[in-house]
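Hi support team,

I submitted a single chain yesterday and got back a structure, but I'm not sure I'm reading the token output correctly. Could someone confirm the output below corresponds to the sequence I sent? I've pasted both exactly as they appear in my results page.

Thanks,
R.
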Amino acid sequence: MLFAVICRDKPGALEIRKATREAHLAYIQQTGIVDMAGPLIEGGQMAGSLVILKTDSADQALAWTRDDPYAHAGLFQSVEVIEWKKVIG
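Hi R., thanks for writing in. Yes, this is the structure output for that exact sequence:
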């Protein structure tokens, strides 16, 4: 199953994102369930994340989000996990 993880950064948290980025990217590589990912851009600056996870359940997707170094650093204002169906691409 595919799940879209939509994360919005806390206002003014760009430095947290930058300082934690390498750990976040290492976590993506280590876990091996990220199908695609990238930052959300607002006003030319990174302001959140969109991650597509391939897991067996929503619970596994939620667990992934809780263990993300970005989450541990307190970067996100909100995190939403929604089952997603790939149609194009």
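A quick pointer for reading it: Helices lie at 14-31, 58-67, 69-72. Let us know if anything else looks off.

Best,
Support desk
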